[in-house]
Specification:
- By secondary structure, the chain is of the alpha+beta class.
- The chain has one domain (4-195): Lambda Exonuclease, Chain A (Alpha-Beta Complex).
- The protein contains seven helices and five strands.
- The protein has helices spanning 4-7, 17-25, 27-34, 43-60, 64-69, 121-138, 163-182, and strands at 72-83, 88-98, 103-109, 144-149, 155-160.
- The chain has a five-stranded mixed sheet.
- Strand 2 (88-98) and strand 3 (103-109) form a beta hairpin.
- Helix 2 (17-25) packs across helix 3 (27-34).
- The relative contact order is 0.18.
- The protein binds iron/sulfur cluster.
- Iron/sulfur cluster binds at residues 26, 28, 188-189, 194-195, 198, 200-201, 204.
């Protein structure tokens, strides 16, 4: 998780998809990072993975067959999206304009689809956050997001987008800001497996 208040260059504090995903993994991550200001040690690993995704995306960005298959009429690459209203921000690999006059985010993942053949929940949430940001920034309809799995030969999967999911995401944003504003220690994660290799386990009481 980036440290939301101190490292944000925007005048309005905004959260990234990673901030939300880590809060869902364990709400105490929000507290350690943004109330106690104790950074995680895993950040370097995340950056390495993200760097690989960016490299792989660059290799792929000129492949026009993908563009035709998805009905893309235009696209922007590596787009910074931010909405003070949603209190969300992030950089999406591609913003797509589709031939049905809607738009969609596309993100590349340096992995394979999970063993059940469905898009990982974390990837679904991330792409839905980008979908919310595109709707807000471009004032355009977004019905779906797209995730391309690089190690599955760039296979692209659709993630449907709905108002209910956007409401759930807005609730997580509210929860995070409530912890930062009150400084109140949240409950531990309900899944104690998450504690096994947690970088805060020695100081989490
Ligand atoms: S040790 Fe467990 S409860 Fe504490 S921060 Fe880590 S995951 Fe959360």
């Amino acid at each position: 998780m980036s440290e939301i208040i101190r490292s944000d260059t925007e005048s309005t504090p905004m959260l990234t998809p990673t901030d939300l995903l880590e809060h869902i993994w364990c709400p105490r991550f929000t507290w350690f990072m943004n109330v106690q200001h104790i950074p995680q040690h895993e950040e370097t690993r995340y950056k390495v993975l993200k760097g690989r995704e960016i490299h792989a995306r660059r290799e792929n960005e000129n492949k026009s067959y993908l563009r035709r298959k998805l009905g893309v009429v235009d696209k922007q690459i590596g787009v910074y999206l931010a909405s003070p209203k949603l209190r969300l921000r992030g950089i999406v690999d591609e913003v797509l304009w589709l031939k049905d006059n809607t738009m969609a985010p596309l993100d590349y993942k340096y992995t394979r689809l999970n063993e059940h053949g469905v898009v990982f929940k974390t990837h679904q949430m991330q792409i839905r956050i980008y979908a919310m940001l595109i709707q807000e920034v471009y004032h355009s309809k977004v019905n779906k997001g797209l995730v391309a799995y690089i190690r599955d030969y760039y296979k692209v999967y659709e993630v449907p987008v709905s108002t209910e999911q956007a409401t759930d995401i807005a609730s997580v944003v509210d929860e995070i800001f409530a912890i930062i504003q009150t400084g109140q220690l949240p409950k531990r994660t309900s899944n104690r497996n998450h504690c096994i290799d947690c970088c805060y386990r020695n100081i989490c009481v």
